[in-house]
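Milestone 3.1: sequence recovery, worked example.
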């Protein structure tokens, strides 16, 4: 019996749909909790090529939700170990593992090689870099986020508005799974929804997952959703760049003090707290680059100084995943 017999029995799949899955190229950024259900589902269904990008290593504190890994994997690259699990599940699927961070430097080339992009990274900067890149290339993005007992998943770009159209402002909270906590099943539910959105997209099911947002609350075991097909793109936005993309003509500010970041994000950066940014002479006509760990502090500072700074303001997140 065929490996895919149970899914090709479905009228929504059939031989034609299986052919679409086998021809699809999917980029998965982040090999942690969300990817734990995403990758086995994609691999098991026979998606043709999966590229896994993650610059982190497995940690014991992640195992409660990153169920692709075992204790023996701790200290090893997530992308490599996740790829090994996928290859063991289905040798027919081509799996590429890239042990590297997603940055604004490599995003364009990675996205260009994919038909669908999945944002499984626990990083504001990575999510917006992927959204900006997918919007520019017309590629669909399935992005998700989980914190505590709730999360969301949505289909962006391609034929739909971008992540910035739905979330144009800096997030209210800088909390992450590492600082605020998260339960494993919540991540599993949202990750499975991501995988289903990918299948719906590849198979051409209607309504399209692009332009659809689903929110899930594990406390009440309820989900809600809405469509955002007509959400307008913001007129302006703060782009994320890597420190390597800055030049000697930029005004570079490191917002972290020396205790938090003994080595600044860029050697030419001056250290300054957000409340002192207005002391910088705005008449130099330079691009202002604000640096911090996640990009959130820089984003909020950029919003405060935007009306007083005539040039472009860009953000640098030193810990982009």
């Amino acid at each position: 019996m065929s490996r895919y017999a149970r899914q090709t029995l479905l009228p929504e799949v059939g031989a034609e749909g299986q052919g679409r899955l086998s021809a699809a190229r999917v980029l998965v950024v982040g090999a942690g909790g969300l990817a734990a259900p995403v990758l086995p589902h994609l691999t098991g269904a026979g998606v043709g090529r999966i590229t896994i990008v993650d610059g982190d290593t497995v940690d014991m504190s992640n195992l409660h939700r990153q169920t692709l890994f075992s204790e023996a994997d701790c200290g090893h690259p997530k992308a490599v170990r996740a790829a090994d699990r996928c290859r063991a599940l289905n040798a027919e699927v081509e799996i590429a593992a890239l042990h590297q961070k997603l940055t604004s430097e490599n995003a364009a080339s990675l996205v260009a090689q994919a038909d669908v992009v999945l944002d499984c990274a626990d990083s504001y900067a990575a999510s917006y870099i992927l959204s900006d890149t997918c919007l520019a290339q017309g590629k669909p993005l399935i992005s998700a986020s989980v914190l505590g007992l709730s999360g969301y998943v949505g289909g962006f770009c391609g034929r739909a508005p971008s992540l910035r159209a739905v979330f144009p402002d800096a997030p209210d909270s800088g909390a992450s799974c590492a600082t605020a906590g998260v339960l494993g099943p919540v991540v599993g539910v949202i990750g499975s929804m991501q995988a289903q959105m990918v299948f719906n997209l590849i198979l051409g099911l209607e309504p399209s997952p692009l332009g659809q947002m689903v929110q899930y609350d594990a406390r009440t075991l309820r989900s809600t959703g809405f469509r955002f097909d007509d959400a307008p793109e913001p007129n302006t936005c703060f782009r994320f760049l890597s420190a390597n993309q800055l030049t000697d003509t930029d005004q570079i500010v490191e917002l972290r003090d020396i205790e938090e970041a003994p080595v600044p994000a860029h050697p030419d950066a001056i250290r300054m707290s957000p409340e002192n940014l207005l002391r910088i002479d705005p008449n130099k006509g330079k691009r202002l680059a604000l640096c911090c760990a996640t990009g959130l502090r820089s984003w909020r500072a950029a919003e405060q100084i935007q009306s007083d700074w005539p040039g472009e303001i860009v953000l640098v997140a030193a810990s982009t995943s």
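The radius of gyration is 20 Å. The mean pLDDT is 93.
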